[in-house]
Amino acid sequence: MMKVRKAVIPAAGFGTRFLPATKVVPKELLPVVDKPTIQYIMEEVASSGIEEVILITGREKGSIEDHFDTSTELEEHLRKKKRMDLLRMVQRISEMVTLVSVRQKEPLGLGHAILCAKKVVGQEPFAVLLGDDLIDAERPCIRQMIDIYQKMDGALLAIQKVPKTETHLYGIIRGRRVSDRVYRVEEMVEKPKQGTAPSNLAIIGRYILPPQIFGILEKVSPDPRGEIQLTDGLRELSQRLPVFGYEFIGDRYDAGDKLGYLQANISLGLKHPELGPKLKRYLKELSGKS
To answer: What is the 3-state secondary structure (H, E, C) of 246-257?
Structure first.
């Protein structure tokens, strides 16, 4: 089994759910507590032993690359001010991973975004992490998945049980449990109509995919909106290779949703060593006023 050395992070969307905040600021750079959303994703990648990130970007997303680049002027300013703690923090960000940027010229769906990484990924398995899904876990989610993937052949999807009233918001699988927290996927439905979902096991934004997915995505027909959906590609892949779902351990926040974004700020803020105690006191005061 080949080692998972590369990760693809799609970041070409417009972030329309967060307008007007995202009119000039990419949604991936909106802060959760004191770090941009995408930095949490990069930290998960780096702490999982992945060596290279392929960032799929769109127009006016250059500031994402800038965040992970060296900032000579800022570093020199911090050095002169003897703010060595902040200097080390800034340097760690630029040293986190090797970053390759690929432009997705049109936002034509998640499947198309992944297809844009074909030449850089090559013929080896790779991880995909969606920036909207923040997963707070003692052992990084993608590291958990790599450990599971090394024991199997095929593809691996992160899954999570969701309320039955919310299954229409997700891709849903029907699967047969094959080991602890692992299911062999037998059916995948993208955002089923309410009451028709085959289970409450939802696909969450973490994947480990074999290189065969690229040839399949090249032939997938666009949906009615003209987009190439990854779920359609995975459905076809499952006819050739096993596809598994892994019920990861950790707390997931949908940072692409306004409520989920606020929940992430509160939950991670409470864990922040400096802000946590103050935020806890404030929330207690706020609760007492309601």
So the answer is: EECCCEEEECCC
Q: Where are the domains of the chain?
A: 6-256
Q: Which of 129, 143, 155 lies closest to 49 in space, CA to CA?
A: 143
Separation of alpha carbons 64 and 60, rounded Å = 9
6-256 has which CATH code?
3.90.550.10
Beta carbons within 8 Å of 288's beta carbon, 6+ residues apart: none
- Tens digit of each residue's pLDDT (9 = 90 or more) over 43-84: 999 999 998 999 999 877 788 888 888 888 998 999 999 999
Is the whole-model pTM more than 0.85?
Answer: yes
Q: What is the DSSP string of 75-131?
A: HHHHHHTT-HHHHHHHHHHHTS-EEEEEE-SS---HHHHHHTTHHHH-SS-EEEE-T
Place of tokens 């959906």: 229
Angle at 247 between CA 244 and CA 252, to 5 degrees: 130
